[in-house]
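hey team, just a heads up i'm posting the complex here instead of the shared drive bc the drive is being weird again. everything in one block, sequence lines first with there labels, then the predicted structure for the whole assembly after. its four chains so it's a bit long, scroll down
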Amino acid sequence: MSKVDFSPIADTTRRAEIVALLRRAILTGQMEPGQKLNELRISEQMRVSRAPLREAMRELVQEGILTSIPYAGTFVINVTAKDIDDAYSLNKVLDEFAIERTWPLRDQRFFSELERRHEAVKQATRDIDTTRQIETALQLHGLIHEWADNSVLLETWQRLTSRLQMYFALHQQARKEAVPAEDVHETYVALLKGTDMRAAQRHAREHIDLDFEELLAYARGLEQRPSKGA
Amino acid sequence: MSKVDFSPIADTTRRAEIVALLRRAILTGQMEPGQKLNELRISEQMRVSRAPLREAMRELVQEGILTSIPYAGTFVINVTAKDIDDAYSLNKVLDEFAIERTWPLRDQRFFSELERRHEAVKQATRDIDTTRQIETALQLHGLIHEWADNSVLLETWQRLTSRLQMYFALHQQARKEAVPAEDVHETYVALLKGTDMRAAQRHAREHIDLDFEELLAYARGLEQRPSKGA
DNA sequence: TCTTGTTAGATTGTCGACAATCTGATTGTC
DNA sequence: GACAATCAGATTGTCGACAATCTAACAAGA
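-- predicted structure starts here --
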């Protein structure tokens, strides 16, 4: 028996790579909400036939970031203020549940991973890499969901996160000014290390409320904005 | 302006029909967990080419009831006791949230719809149609999620429900005896009509706990059962 | 006997071409 | 000018065939 535990090898199908490419393009805000995805054009750009591209698009439709209308096309989802509100209010419930489940499972590995991700956020903040800043913040936030030892919860949270990441990216793009450089996660991390679970839950709720208000205001601003074609 | 509000016309693509067919086959327990889906065989049976079939399968993979391994095949998900446990514990949280949100929105239409679905359950119980019994019970249970006016919650609950329906169908199939004919939803419906929200939440939690214990015992029984091929 | 290399068969992944459908412009009619 | 019918172009949906990969059976060698 070998002492090395190998990780499963990466998917080597074109489909999987296409999914990753498209997802990234959408979640970083490179594609606008409502924008149509022209199959022929994209398949030519990627040097791939339409079959794996279409399969990839079906996956992203189910993932909730694309929407498809038969014989009309596949589009990036439109973001309404209500969508954001819905996602956030559910997120609060999931956070509370995740903290409750993670709490008794916290160990040394948890704390070091928490520290690692917190560092990543601070690094991205220093680099003023806004896209990475969103990514790392969501990864820090996601630790409690990964650690809660509930695969359905994790899956649900990841679906939610996809959209939130997209919303944040668009919001970030919209305002020209740089993101606040201060570290808003300091208290959150400290509470997760502490002994008062209720306090941690309360803070998580208030903490995400903060960014939420800003995001909602932004979304209300572009409500009923005409969707742009290819 | 017409006073009639038309429902959107049905999807007329083969893909959509294939999705419906496969989903039904899986959720009614006609396909065993772990079973492999042979693309050529299924496409010939359905008189369809592999392209729309494969796209349909990608959707169901994202929906969480199929799993795919590149160059190996696509399989019906395997059910472990932990999966059921995870799904149920999250379901409890979602139920509590759904009731909270639905509560102030209850109106006459809500109550009549509640009554209608309750009748459907009772009818299925009288007919001893176990498959329909599961369907109607889940639909009754789903009303609070549909009424809560939160699209993300509804979507999440529907994903969860898919699996639960599959679990219940398998459980039902396993035990030869008929399901208890008594109506276990009477109290639940009554509480949803009442004025004590906390009581309704409490009952919803205990109510699903009931069937849960039985399901869990069943799942533990077939743990590490060898998966059957095509 | 155990391990390694080879090979044939089956299955999945991908491709290019054709069919079905939609959209918008054009034409003809009142 | 307004409106319906027609048509061309573009785009999506589907098909059949080929390429890449896996599996299992078999043979060869230590």
